[in-house]
Amino acid sequence: MSAIEIAGVSKSYGAMRALDDVSLTIGGNAFFTLLGPSGCGKTTLLRCIAGFEEVSAGSIRLLGRDIAALAPNERPVNTVFQNYALFPHMTVAENVAFGLRMKGVPEARRRARAARMLEMVHLAELADRMPAQLSGGQQQRVALARALAPEPEVLLLDEPLSALDLKLRQAMRLELKQLQEETGITFVFVTHDQEEALTMSDRIAVMSHGRLQQVGTAREIYESPVNRFVADFIGETNVLPVLVEGVEGGRASVVLPGGARISCPAAGLGPGAHHLSIRPERIGIAAGGPLRATVERVVYLGTDLQLVTRLADGTAVQVRLQNSARTEVPAPGTAIALEPEEGAARLLAD
Amino acid sequence: MRGVRHYPGFGAVTAGCLVLLYAPLVVIAVYSFNGSASITQWGGFSWRWYVDVFTGPESGRFGQAAWNSITIALLAATAATVIALSAALAMVRAGSFRGRSATFALVNLPLMVPEIITAVATLIFFTAIGLRTGYLTILIAHITFCIPFAYLPIAARMQGIEGVYEQAARDLYATRWQAFRLILLPLVMPGVVSGYLLAFIISLDDFIITNFVKGAGMETLPTAIFGSVKQGIKPNIMAISTMLLAVSAIFVTLSYFINRVGQRARG
Amino acid sequence: MAGGAASGGTQGREYRAVALPLLLPAWLVIGIFMVLPVLLMGVYSFLTKEFRGGVIWDFTLAAYDQFFVYRGLFGDEPPTLEWTYITIFWRSIWQAGLATALCLAVGFPTAWFIATRPVRTRTMWLFLITVPYWVNLLIRTVSLKFLIRDNGPLNEGLMALGLIDGPLPLVNTNLAVQLGLFYSYLPFMVLPIYAAVERYDFALSEAAADLYAGRWTTLREIVLPAVRPGIVAGAILVFVPSLGAFLAPDLLGGAKTYMIGSLIDEQFRGSQGNWPFGAAAAMILMTLVLIALILYARAQGRGRPA
User: Fold this and answer.
1) Interchain CB distance below 8 Å, A130 and B265
2) What is the pLDDT of residue B265?
3) CA C33 to CA C29: how far, in whole Å?
């Protein structure tokens, strides 16, 4: 059974629409990510699920049950807040046991469970500390233990890694994923960091301006973006203005800038002016390639080199080359020909 | 050449300002230990006037006045703090609602109206409704003007506490009441204590309004002192003043440190 | 997104649902024992005085007439403007104004000095400035009187040092009253200015200095306009209570320093009193305060960028 069914949910603040007719199904035992730039409505959606905001229209069902009438304390979901919201006047153990205490679990049992939760996040020895005495990473783990202790049906995580430094963030990604698999609890994870989303999620929902743009696995979202926003937001890409001459059998005949023609999946689009996305790492230098460009600059990125090139019509095209001894690096000013790999070119809806 | 923050003479003015503020208090505290019965001559250090306060001919009158002052201050500060905390909850936590700014103005009204006007108006009101002036009228007046003094520190403190803590509690199955009692109340407590202490001091110190609504024969410490100094400053008055001064200083210091400890705990 | 204290969402709604019972006690207490009395005072100012203190419920303008109009000793001369009470009010405004100026002259450098201390010591300085305010105003005023009496420690000390031959006559002068008012309300001037200076961006002063402005030019041209809201707030906080002050003029002044507070107070003492006249004087004082507050609101509005 799916854990959460969101049907036609909208949320307005006065004239501002924070959520615009969002429908989404989140399966059980999954790591699900809501991804989008700040202000896209992902946090609002999370807060609607938790019960901190009321939806203006639509319904949210949790394990098949409509939760609109339930206060936050009546919903079997728990939240890891962005800045953790650890109760500053309670010890770590008291924080972790709080939910169990509110549920009326006897003291001995909740103490044992809190200890177990702290062990799970490797903080057993800090049980009697106050939150202010912990590092950011430790606070984050306490928040996680606190939210998992009452064994919620769904765990909501609101950008929980954003306050940590890069190293810690990367380590926590794996740990979070592991924790989800161990506990079997559905995680709904909100982030604006696409790398975070790609590395952890079973499924990702990309949001923008209160609307759902695309839902899919990491690979689907990265390799088959449905529109310009998704292609642009996930990873780096080159967007070229193209003309679709005709569509036949699901494949489109496309005129590239400079006049060369290629064929690519039509993605449901008809003839006319469209945009084509090609990832920088999926395009290479090849004599006789369909795109003619001039190298403007070579940027050194360590493992990679990035060529900034420009087509005759002025469109910039980035090319990623592996930085190996065999790579021939064209000097700025050189005229080159570029060729997308097979299947790399994708037409985008606007 | 020092930085742009430095202005020559400003430090000296500050020092002068502090001397001016403290000199009278220090002088009266020192002279309260004067062994001589004449206030102008220094007769050596002595506890004589402190003993006099508790056993002298005026001790009964001042004892009763002190009792009145302290009980009124305790009751008024308690009532004002409860009222202020309740109002602050709605003002700070309920977001925006109609009448919010009007309520803010109303709660702070006792701070804006000169005391003499409040005093006159309150006396007229009690007379008009036929309530005999005395202990009860003083208490009512004190509760009223203590409210903003309790309200401001409580509201300021509450504003500094993010709503997310209560949300986290609700998320962890706490009811509204539990979220208030177990999370918000302990976090806002330094503000509550600080507001209570200030209200207590303000009540204890009030002279003008009390003088109007106290009625005949009823005295609080300030009205008793005022009655006494009208005939000239006597050494026992200085001893009482010094004790009151110490009480005020202790309360304000307490309030200051409680707030600071609270702030530190918040991280 | 996570939101500060201003709670939106269901939390705000839940509190709004109980806002009425939460606010009711404050509304009732201040409404009944503060707003209603002031309104009633307005009504009383139009009533007829009773000779043993109190009022007769006959509406009349007698109190205001007594305040503004002079008809001779026996009430038979052609009406002219009565100067007695206007003079008292004018003196009060003047005294309060001077006390405010004195507070500003001392308070601004003090606030500046404190705001430019290292963060750790700032609260300590502020604390030192505010402690005397929490000491009973009556005791402070009595202490000041004791200090500056003719044969008080100040004069004795100065004479012992040979700086003066006879005692400086300080008590019962305008200066003493101003000193008393200054002493009573100084923290009210320091705190808002301090808050303004603390928010002031000192890079502006550095920019001015870089562009060849001297220290005092910078103060006048850059700093003062920037911290003006704090200065105006401080001025109003000192001026308003000074206007209606009772203790400082009563204890430190004499007949020549009689101020509004004493005038009003006297109308409610014993059988000599005149309640409607006292209420009328209080209403006029209230009007002055309101004018000051309105001017303040307008000055603050202008001081800020739209």
Assistant:
1) yes
2) 52
3) 6
